[in-house]
Amino acid sequence: LGPIYRFNHYDIGSNKVESADIRRGWRELGKNHYDQAINSFKLALRKNPESAEAYNGLASFWEYKKDYDKAIKYLSKAIEIEHRVKYKAGYFYLRALMWMEKSDFDRAIEDYTNAIQNDPTLFYAYVNRAHCDRKIGKLQAALADYDKALELAPKHTIAYEKAFGGRKDLLVEI
Is residue 174 within 8 Å of 150, Cβ to Cβ? Predict the structure, then answer.
């Protein structure tokens, strides 16, 4: 399963019945039981058409199937619905990953920027935005984002390695 599944950090909210469906959907997705997962997320949406978490689950399924356009569609709906700032940041981050998969680095940068505006501590957004900036030749912007990621997560091993490695490689390019 891809980054949407791994990144999933929702706090299942107010509706206990809907929450059970969403939990079941993620559980089934993790077991590669795709039909059951899709049915659980769709059931959650029938109960609450404003469930950003259920749209996120559907996006994860389509990401796994490598249908990034459908994943983007469902993440866009989650972004439209979501009012909790940190969660909205996460959905922007995930949609940016889908744009990266499609090599649409300008849109990815836009979504990483929106993620950062909603949650300035989301250090992975800085790392990935830096990667996108490098792809389109904005080397100084990339360097600034690598530096910010290192500042935010000096003890987070994976983020540090990605940011430090990216920064080191970038300095060779500059």
Answer: no
Distance CA 55, CA 84 (A): 15
Using CA atoms, how far apart are residues 47 and 60, in angstroms rounded to an integer? 20
Residue 10 φ/ψ region, left for φ over 0, alpha for ψ in the -120 to 50 degree band, beta for the rest? beta
Tokens for 40?
Answer: 């659980």
Eight-class DSSP state of 14: S
At residue 109, the 3 state secondary structure works out as: helix
Of 73, 74, 91, the C-alpha closest to 82 is: 91
Backbone angles phi, psi at 46, to 5 degrees: -65, -35
CA pair distance 108, 153, nearest whole angstrom: 21
DSSP state of 122: -
Sign of CA dihedral 141, 147, 151, 152: positive
Beta carbons of 7 and 90 less than 8 angstroms apart: yes
Q: What is the pLDDT of residues 57-113, one digit of tens each?
A: 999 999 999 999 999 999 999 999 999 999 999 999 999 999 999 999 999 999 999
Q: What is the value of pTM for the model shown? A: 0.85
pLDDT of 127-168, one tens digit each?
A: 999 999 999 999 899 989 988 988 888 776 666 666 667 676
